[in-house]
Amino acid sequence: MSNPKPEKVNLFDLADTGYAKPSLEIVKLGSDETALIPFTSYTEAVVLHYCQETEIAGYAVCNGSGCMLCRVGRKQDERLLLPVYLPTSESIGILPLSRSLRPYALLPQLLNVLKVKKPMVMFVRREGGKYLVSTVDLKPDAEGGELAMKQFLSDYEADNYDLASLYPQYSNEQLTGVEEISRMLALKEGSRNADHQGT
Prior knowledge:
It is a single chain. The chain is α+β, with helices and mostly antiparallel strands. The protein has helices spanning 11-17, 68-71, 106-116, 146-157, 172-176, 179-198; strands at 25-26, 34-38, 44-51, 58-61, 76-86, 91-97, 120-127, 130-137. It has one domain (23-167).
């Protein structure tokens, strides 16, 4: 039995059909300034859990009803996922926002920039729980990412992007395979059974 002949794929054909769209990345803010240009007020809400276990080591999407991470008492963190333009890498990134409106929270500062309704660059850095923001007007001759923004919005409206998929989602079965989570579940379920036996 002969092996099937390998399929020939032209990279330019991939680009033309849109399959080679650049992948999106989560914008991580830290003590160094990050330059970004907000261009839309529409976000996607996602509910996450933070897991310190080495198998996960980061945020995972909540599984909703019956979620294993909810069952073991992991706090839910809602994030609003906002597309922004990153002028230094000339790409679209996804900025996670909390709903907090407290002083120095990022959301109210970002809303102030969007209300101006003219292209502005935000320089954002994080110090603990504070977001320090400065802005400059985008110069008329500067690269403002208009084509990238327009392409992204077109693709997004066509449902070509699922922003929540930027975070990993593990099935309850996979989560049970993580030792620390499995032990916590056994402790919680055991105490629940003990409560029922005591009544």
